[in-house]
Write a structure and sequence with these properties.
The structure holds three protein chains of three kinds.
Chain A lengths: L3 H28 L10 H13 L2 H33 L1 H14 L8 H8 L3 H25 L3 H9 L4 H39 L5 H10 L3 H29 L13
Helix pairs in contact in A: 2-10, 3-4, 3-6, 3-8, 3-9, 5-6, 6-8, 7-8, 8-9, 8-10, 9-10
Chain B lengths: L3 E12 L2 E13 L4 E5 L6 H9 L6 E6 L2 E2 L7 E4 L12 H12 L3 H14 L15 H14 L4 E5 L7 H18 L2 E6 L2 H7 L2 E6 L4 E7 L11 H14 L1 H8 L6
Parallel strand pairs in B: 3-8, 3-9, 6-7, 7-8
Antiparallel strand pairs in B: 1-2, 1-4, 4-5, 9-10
Helix pairs in contact in B: 2-3, 2-4, 3-4, 6-7
Chain C lengths: L7 H28 L10 H13 L2 H33 L1 H14 L8 H8 L3 H26 L2 H9 L4 H39 L5 H10 L3 H29 L10
Helix pairs in contact in C: 2-10, 3-4, 3-6, 3-8, 3-9, 5-6, 6-8, 8-9, 8-10, 9-10
Classes of the chains: A mainly alpha, B alpha/beta, C mainly alpha.
Chain lengths: 263, 261, 264
């Protein structure tokens, strides 16, 4: 399919750029212009990362963060997806929930953190609910517009071939809306990922990648912060490319239904 | 008794500008296994009439009878092929699209795939059974659509300018293929077109419609042996006759295959 | 969503349709608040929230908080818009710039912006400066990506026709590439401001700024002033809605929608 040369070439160039950037950073860090505690050398960051992984604390932080994120994210799918589909199918449901969603969506989920802390205390409940709030709206609105955008001609063709309401729903509307539903899942994940880290910064007091970054600030441990940022970036990358990327490759890309992502 | 009877069918649209007649008092019959073309320029109501026969629209006056029974909605006795390539389900392979109707009927998987493969053979696409629609050319997609409409064995095939969006060469091939498919299956076909040569090539009989309001002007039987030769003198005579019937206003458009409704 | 042709009756109907879900939810809230299931300090009835809203607005406190928050949003966003569009165009036009920036941008993008907040505070101190810097940093990513994509999506045939008509490099850039990439750039700006808005409030909480809606909410928690917090959230929602519906939708209508490059 694609010739090896351009791909290899761009990987090569990317590597050169990143190595150069790392070298510049390392020179500045070692020069002592800035305090070591604030601008740790990359070797220090690597040491910290390795030792935090070795003693299991990094895995535990990541585990807590993932648990809270996935819990809230799943909740958002379980509620947002069916509700969005119902909104697309039934005018009464749309008329009730659309105005509410339009009013609540522009409020950043993280603005609710102090209120939720008052209501539910510090810890898991608040964080999970914040993640739920963040992931809910992209899921809901994409499912809704997906159902509404199902090509009328598919419904007609299926009707001609004798599809009843049930098969129309499962065999035409759901796959027809899938480009939007998958975009919704992806956006919901992105929002959930921001929300979980943000909520952990303020609303947790023991474990979690957001909390460890916040905590490290108190002790000027910039190496811990950068190491945790790297882990956060890796997890985000894995979900973005591997999970959602393969989901897309096996569905809408294979069907030629990919559309320009929006938002 | 004729297979399909179109009796005084009228349809009036309610628009903000007032009531606009789409089809006015259309009257004609179609015999079993007959290939009938509805020919006319844009806005003459031919597609509207086909949608009424398909059961997508209800006439505001008159009725359609198929095998003596009045049409009240769409049904498995009629297969429909649209002009839009998007009619295929992109998430199903060519075979998956053709099996859809049988799946709705509850035909077991193995049996329906056998039937579908036969239909794909009929349109010479058996090699592409497992391809997704977006990998197929426009002409191939329309052939899948024809196979899909035939798969559950309806008695009537309704076609709404299925080849209008194809290039001229592909369109010629598709017309030949359709003529073959029709000869083998002997379905009753109602075929909407604004292309005069296409109508002469395919039809046993052409119903000429004129716009404002959409009315049936005349029926012209095409008495030519098949397969037909588009370069023969008789073929050209029929084209001239149909163009004359369409009138000067429609001539430019009716000969130009690209324009569509 | 009343159409432009609908009369006063239609508009009234549309308003009622949009309002009734809020009436239902408001009534439910009121019931729960009055039943006293939760302490009223934590779950105040709506009229207390409204009273707080009015009181703080009249006293000028809420407008001052909102003003400071908006100032930070626009300052950060302005940095991001200028830098992001410049970098994105450079990446789209020059191979070398693409080779340098693309790997760096790709590494930074999967990390939620808010995670950088403690690091920025460590480096640049608490307060407005780090907040603005972080907002700018975070909203630059979608702007860079979309501008880059947009410049690459400018049709070669437009470039060639402009060159055939004698456009020099500067004219090519101003007359063809910039307008050609505009739908993408606008999408990038819209996403950028949305990202910035999503984290600004929480960064204000962390950065201990003296004024700002985030700080208002966060500070009110100490005194269990739930009514003040909810009033603050109401204003945050109002600003978010205005940004989305009025600022960007209008900008798009005047440019790319008018040119038929984007459906409204």
């Amino acid at each position: 399919m694609n010739a090896p040369s351009p791909g290899t070439r761009s990987i090569l160039r990317a590597t050169v750029t990143i190595l150069a950037a790392a070298a510049i950073y390392e020179i500045i860090a070692r020069s002592g212009i800035f305090p070591r505690a604030l601008l740790p050398t990359l070797t220090t960051v690597a040491d910290t990362l390795v030792s935090m992984i070795a003693d299991g604390s990094m895995l535990r932080h990541a585990g807590y963060t993932l648990y809270r994120m996935l819990f809230g994210f799943s909740l958002a799918i379980v509620i947002g997806l069916p509700l969005g589909i119902l909104m697309g199918r039934f005018r009464a449901v749309e008329q009730f929930f659309l105005p509410l969603a339009s009013a609540l969506m522009p409020i950043p989920s993280l603005a609710w953190v102090p209120v939720f802390i008052l209501w539910f205390g510090l810890g898991n409940t608040t964080t999970v609910l914040i993640v739920f709030y963040a992931a809910m709206f992209p899921m809901l609105l994409n499912a809704w517009s997906g159902v509404r955008s199902v090509n009328q001609i598919w419904l007609r063709a299926a009707g001609v071939m004798g599809a009843d309401e049930n098969s129309l729903f499962w065999k035409v509307i759901i796959p027809g809306a899938s480009p939007f539903i998958i975009t919704g899942l992806r956006q919901a994940f992105q929002r959930a990922w921001i929300a979980v880290v943000g909520a952990e910064l303020i609303a947790t007091s023991d474990w979690g990648l957001g909390w460890v970054i916040y905590d490290a600030k108190e002790f000027l441990n910039a190496d811990v912060m950068i190491a945790s940022l790297a882990v956060i970036g890796c997890i985000g990358f894995v979900f973005e490319r591997l999970v959602f990327g393969s989901l897309e490759r096996n569905t809408i890309l294979r069907w030629g239904m990919a559309r320009v992502a929006k938002g | 008794m004729s297979h399909i009877e179109v009796r005084d069918v009228s349809l009036v649209y309610d628009t903000p500008a007032g009531r606009v007649p789409g089809v006015q008092a259309a009257n004609f019959d179609i015999e079993a296994s007959e290939f009938l073309c509805l020919l006319g320029p844009s806005g003459c109501g031919k597609s509207t009439l086909l949608n009424i026969i398909a059961g997508f629209l209800s006439p505001t006056g008159g009725e359609i009878r198929i095998g003596g029974k009045a049409v009240t909605g769409h049904g498995l006795d009629r297969g429909v092929v649209f002009q839009d390539f998007a009619q295929l389900f992109p998430w199903r392979t060519a075979l998956g699209n053709v099996t859809f109707g049988l799946e709705m009927k509850g035909v077991p998987k193995q049996e329906r795939e056998e039937i579908a493969l036969k239909q794909l053979q009929l349109v010479k696409l058996e090699k592409f059974a497992n391809a997704y629609p977006h990998h197929l050319s426009g002409g191939m997609q329309q052939r899948v659509a024809i196979a899909r409409a035939l798969a559950y064995n309806p008695a009537v095939l309704l076609m709404d300018e299925p080849f209008a969006a194809l290039d001229a060469f592909t369109r010629d091939d598709m017309q030949r293929l359709l003529a073959e498919v029709w000869r083998e299956t002997r379905k009753t076909v109602i075929y909407v077109t604004h292309n005069v040569a296409e109508a002469v090539y395919l039809a046993d009989r052409v119903v000429v419609m004129t716009p404002h309001p959409g009315t049936v002007k005349i029926e012209v039987p095409i008495r030519l042996p098949r397969p037909r030769d588009p370069l023969s003198v008789e073929f050209l005579e029929y084209q001239k006759e149909l163009l004359r019937q369409l009138g000067p206003a429609a001539t430019g458009q009716a000969t130009n295959g690209k324009a569509n409704d | 969503m009343a159409s432009a042709t609908a009369g006063a009756g239609g508009r009234l109907r549309a308003f009622a349709l949009n309002a009734y879900p809020f009436v239902v939810v408001g009534a439910l809230w009121e019931m729960v608040a009055r039943l006293g299931i939760f302490p009223p300090r934590l779950f105040p009835p709506l009229e207390e929230v409204a009273a707080a809203l009015v009181r703080l607005t009249v006293a000028g406190i809420l407008p001052h908080h909102a003003y400071e928050t908006l100032l930070r949003l626009f300052a950060g966003f302005a940095i991001a818009a200028v830098a992001g569009v410049a970098v994105g165009i450079a990446m789209g036009r020059s191979r070398r710039a693409e080779d340098i920036f693309l790997p760096l941008v790709s590494i930074g993008a999967p990390i939620p912006g808010v995670a950088y907040a403690p690091l920025f505070m460590l480096w640049f101190g608490l307060g407005s400066f780090s907040t603005i810097l972080l907002v700018g940093f975070v909203s630059a990513f979608p702007i860079i990506f979309n501008t880059w994509t947009g410049v690459k999506a400018v049709k070669e045939i437009w470039v060639r026709s402009a060159q055939a008509m004698g456009a020099d490099n500067r004219q090519l850039f101003r007359q063809v590439i910039l307008p050609g990439a505009l739908p993408y750039i606008l999408t990038g700006l819209r996403l950028g401001v949305a990202q910035a808005w999503r984290i600004l409030v929480v960064v204000e909480m962390l950065a201990a700024v003296p004024w700002g809606l985030g700080w208002l909410i966060f500070g009110a928690r100490e005194f269990l002033n739930t009514d003040v917090m909810l009033a603050g959230i109401f204003v945050i929602g109002l600003i978010g809605l205005t940004l989305e519906k009025h600022v960007f939708a209008r900008l798009e209508r005047y440019t790319v929608v008018r040119w038929g490059m984007m459906a409204s």
